[in-house]
Every structure is written in structure tokens, then in C-alpha cells.
Amino acid sequence: MDYSRKIAERLWNQADKGELESHREETFIDDIIQKSHLEKELLSHLDGIKTVFDGGAGCGRFSILLAKYGCEVTHFDISQPMIDKAKELAAKEGVLDKITFVKGALEDLGAFADHSYDMVISFDAPVSYTHPNQEKVIGELVRICRKRIMLSVSSRLGYLPYLANPIQRNQFILDENCGDPYVEWCVANREKAIEAFYFKKDTVMKLWNEGLTGGEEEIAAYEKGETPWCITYTFMPDELEDILTRCGVKKIKLAGPGAYVRTIPRELLVKIMKDDGQRRDFLEFCHQYDSNPYVCGMGKDNLFAYGEL
Ligand SMILES: C[S@@+](CC[C@H](N)C(=O)[O-])C[C@H]1O[C@@H](n2cnc3c(N)ncnc32)[C@H](O)[C@@H]1O
Fold first, then answer.
1. Confidence tier at 1 by pLDDT (50, 70, 90)
2. With the CA atoms of 110, 99, 21 and 167 taken in that order, what torsion angle do they form, in degrees rounded to the nearest 10?
3. Are 149 and 119 in contact (CB under 8 A)?
4. Which residues pair with 145 in a beta bridge?
5. What is the pLDDT of residue 100?
6. How many CB atoms within 10 Å of residue 188?
């Protein structure tokens, strides 16, 4: 079995992962923008959609939403703790009977028949964790899809700025005193991160050329029994478009959720997000701006693709 899959499985199988993930967009503004973008795309493309396959569905952010809109959803994920959390949340929302939970790896979709779902989605980078099988996985997701496919994968153009900005997450903290341990860590380590920072051109060029974050160090850590972050394949926009085109996907639209918000200082973002009217208008405008093909890829760390079969 490839290391990517083994490492992803160990990371996402951590007992508290489902609980942590289910609170993610309460604390970081860029996560709020990304979720809002994906929700807007989903809800504006539901006509004629009865069945959905959600690959790497996590704790159910989108599978539960779609079930609430009347879809029959297959919630597919490699991690049992994530599935357990999703079941708990689906029960709370009263949609348990609309969702079939399946534990499995995206690298192995052979059990699903061709064209068996009206819509196939895979959001927030599950495909990127399947290196070196990412192209095959996209092909399989397209194969089981009948009408519409939506993916969000790790974006190379979106990820590269992180390498020159170790404090970029601080820009997006909604409330520094919210008690979230990761927020506390970001705040406490800000000065240290600036002091230790050195622009490493080799590292940036390696990501630019190869698209991979993680590798030998993660494999060594895994072998020692540790739990490193996933080995992640980041896509260039034109590369993702070419793969989807080769798989027979038509009417492809790409977007870079998070491009607009990246340009705004934290003080102003917090002001916008804490006022209901401004927040609604801002989220709508972010969706419009981030959907422009000329900024696509410059968003947060995800690149979004929509296509039809
Ligand atoms: C960042 S979470 C995204 C969850 C969900 N799509 C969302 O947007 O809220 C990534 C998910 O992908 C799952 N995953 C990672 N590698 C996978 C693989 N090879 N096959 C299936 N699921 C995988 C993880 O268990 C995790 O739940």
C-alpha cells in the first residue's frame, strides 16, 4: 500500500479528529470563506440531483447539508472516527436515514458501478492525499458520476504563499480569545515564527516544480510510529483542468476560494465578519471574485473544480 494512504489513514483515525474538524470554521475566517464558497456551488447546482457520492466526506459538513436538501447521500471516508462524528451530527439534524456511511479508501472505488450517482463531490483535498494515485482517483470519481462533479483539491498556487508566510493563519483568526488550542498556539508563536523565518528558495522551487508537500520525512516519522501530516499533492489549475478533460468532463469551471480575503488585513476582516449584513455581502462578493478564472488558484490552499458529464 502507498505511504500516502497509510499516513492519511493514521492521521485521520486519531480519536479526536472528527470533533476538531467539526468546529473548524468557527475559528478561522479563511475556512468560513471556503465553506461558504463550496456551499454556494452545491446549492446552486442541485436541480435534477437525487443521489450524491461524497468522497472523503469527513464529519459530514457537506453530506449532511445535501441530505437536508433531500438528496440520498453516500458518505465515504477512510476514517472511522470521522464517520462516527458524522453519524452523530446527522442524527442531530434528523437526516440519518438519508445517508449511507461507507468506510473505504478513494484509491479503491471498484465496488461502485459506472455512472451510479447523479453528483460526485470530494471537498477539502481528499484527492490530494492519495499521491501517487491522484489522477487515477479523479478518473474513478468521474467514472461513477452521471451528471455533475465537484472537487476541491490542494492548490499549488494557493499553497506557495504559506512558504513565505509562517504567520498567515494569524490573519484569519476571528476571535483570539475563543479558547481553541490551535488559535492559542498561533497567537503565542507569532513572534517566534517571524524571528526563525528565512525565505528558502529551494523549498519554494521544489513545491513549484514537483507539487508535493511532505515525503521522506513524513515516511520516516510514520515508520517510527508517529503521526505526521498527510503527504499532499498540490495541483496547478491547468493541470487539474487537463486531467478532468481527459476523463471526459465538460463545462469545467475552476475557482480559488479565498483569493479575495487574502488581500485584507485582519482588523478589517474581523469588523466585516462580526456584522451580519456586511458578512453576508462579503461572503457573496468573495464567491464572485474567487470564481473569476484569472484569480483561480490564488485562494487559500484549495482549488475548486466544477464539471459536467
Ligand atoms: C480535510 S477533511 C475534509 C472532509 C470533508 N470533505 C469536508 O470538506 O468537510 C479530509 C477527509 O478525507 C479523508 N481521507 C483522507 N484520505 C482518504 C482516502 N485515501 N480515502 C478516503 N478518504 C480519505 C479523511 O479521513 C478526512 O475525513
1. low
2. 70
3. yes
4. 117
5. 98
6. 9
**Distance from the alpha carbon of residue 199 to the mean position of ligand 1, in angstroms:** 31
What is the residue with the minimal CA distance to atom 2 of ligand 1?
58
pLDDT bucket at 299, cuts 50 / 70 / 90: confident
CA of 293 to the centre of ligand 1 (A): 26
Q: Which domain holds residue 239?
A: 3-308
CA of 78 to the centre of ligand 1 (A): 7
List, for residues 238-251, the tens digit of each pLDDT value.
999 999 999 999 99
* Whether 251 contacts 230, CB under 8 Å: no
Task: Please compute the mean of the pLDDT values over residues 52-74 and round it to a whole number.
Answer: 97
The b-or-e profile of 217-254 (16+ CB within 10 A means b, else e) is ebbeebeeeeebebbbbbbebeebbebbeebebeeeeb
CATH of the domain at 190: 3.40.50.150
Cα radius of gyration (the chain): 19
270 Cα–ligand 1 center, Å = 29
Q: Which atom of ligand 1 is nearest to the CA of 129?
A: 16
Closest ligand 1 atom, residue 122 Cα:
6
The yes-or-no verdict on residue 97 having pLDDT over 80 is yes
Within 8 A by CB and 6+ apart from 258, the residues are 30, 33, 34, 37, 158, 286, 290, 299, 300, 301, 302
CA distance 179 to 214: 30
Find the 122 Cα to ligand 1 centroid distance in Å: 8
pLDDT mean over 56-80 = 97
The ligand 1 atom at the shortest distance from the C-alpha of residue 106 is: 20
Ligand 1 surroundings by CB, under 6 angstroms = 5, 8, 12, 56-58, 61-62, 77-79, 82, 105-107, 123-126, 129-130
**What's the domain count of the chain?**
1
